[in-house]
Amino acid sequence: MPATDHPLKRVFMLAPEAFATWLLGEPVVRVSTRKDELYSSPEAVDADLIFSVTTAAGDEPILHIELQGAGSHRPVPLRVLEYHVRIVIRNPDIPVLSYVLYVGGAGANDTGMHTRTDHTGRVVLAWQYGVIHLWQMTSEELLALDVPALAVLIGQTKIINPERDIRLAMERIYTYTEAEQRMQFFLELLALCTDQEILKMAQQMYTSEYGLPEPLIITLSREEGREEGRAEGREEGRAEGRSSMLLRQLTRRLGELPEPLRAQVQQLHSDDLLELADTIFDIATLADLTVWLAAHTPASPESE
Predict the structure, then answer these.
(1) Which of 72-86, 125-139, 157-171 has the lowest mean pLDDT?
(2) What is the pLDDT of residues 53-81, one digit of tens each?
(3) Closest by CA position to 87, among listed 131, 36, 50, 128
(4) Alpha carbon separation from 239 to 73, 218, 235 (Å, rounded)
(5) Residue 256 to residue 247: CA distance in whole angstroms
(6) Whole-angstrom Cα distance, residue 223 to residue 238?
């Protein structure tokens, strides 16, 4: 699902406690990523998201999430089974909970409950995981959850009243999130509005009702291209906002970044910042980030 994969991952990383609470159905007080520290090469698990969760009740399960659109090359049930088993093998004493979030009409027949039988029909293997068909959820159901972070997903639901529901989603984000996070949520909401009419409506509200500058939408800027000749200072301001957002996500993902790496991210050109945003979930370690930056940082005149 190239149009929604990275935006969905970014949203989950921006507010992991809110999404973990939604999936688990109980209050969560802390979430941290587990994928990179547990699964380095050659035992990498290519799962979308793996979190260590602490619930309000004091439980500490591992939360494994797959984000799935149409066109999977491998059967999702078998993929989830493989990842789940590999996580359990590495963490035999920790409960592991797996969930699949389907978008774009995918997974209509997946109930999350699966079995395999032998030649006599006897069940020899059974497994289950949570399933959410986001595309079957209505915008009203999503908004009724009353969680600002979840409102970002509205473009992937069945929107009952577009003008009303998009406005409610944006109002919720604007009212209940802080400035930096608010901007990031707005950008991901726009990126996840895959219906062009809904997107135009959301863009208009973004600029006219909130007095915000023309949005930086990573997905759309790639699909539609940028207008040439925009004011240099305006573009520099956008680049600064992108680098700030990426540094926040990289820190959450990799831990505190060494100052040289932070400086390199801040010095990236606009196109490279967009590319880094698209590939951030393929960067598993500080070494990966160092290699990526080395390939995208212009050589200094002294080194040429």
Answers:
(1) 72-86
(2) 999 999 999 999 999 988 767 899 999 99
(3) 50
(4) 36, 11, 6
(5) 9
(6) 18
